[in-house]
Amino acid sequence: MHIRDFRSMYKSRYEGDLVAKCYFPKHKLVWEVLDGCLKNKIEIPWSDIMALKANYPVDAPGTLEVVK
After folding, report:
1. What Pfam family does this protein match (any one) (predicted)?
2. Rounded to two decimals, what is the model's pTM?
3. 12 or 27, which is more confident?
4. Which of 6, 15, 50, 56 could crosslink 62 through cysteines, CB 3.0-4.6 Å?
5. In whole angstroms, what is the distance from residue 5 CA to residue 64 CA?
6. Interval 15-61: pLDDT, tens
7. Distance CA 58, CA 30 (A)
8. Which of 3-7, 9-13, 17-21, 55-59 is predicted least confidently?
9. What's the rounded Cα separation, in Å, for the pair 20 and 1?
């Protein structure tokens, strides 16, 4: 699964505002993008995920790869 670069699509209104978050509620991975008052969500059940790979370099944006 590939979630494209959303930095150009979703900009925070004020410096430091949260634009997206990823969290792990009951047996699933949730990716949430906030666009003003609207919230777009992708939910993936744990049973569909084979692997997760996080890459967070100091000088560049981080990535999270989800293998289904």
Report:
1. PH_TRF2_HOY1
2. 0.63
3. 27
4. 56
5. 12
6. 666 677 888 898 999 988 877 778 888 899 999 999 988 888 898 87
7. 24
8. 3-7
9. 17
Copy the structure tokens of residue 55. Answer: 């890459």
What phi and psi, each to the nearest 5 degrees, are found at residue 23?
A: -150, 170
Distance between CA atoms of residues 6 and 28, nearest Å: 22
**∠ CA 57-2-21, rounded to 5°:** 60
Identify the pLDDT of residue 18. Answer: 67
Residue with tokens 């996080």: 54
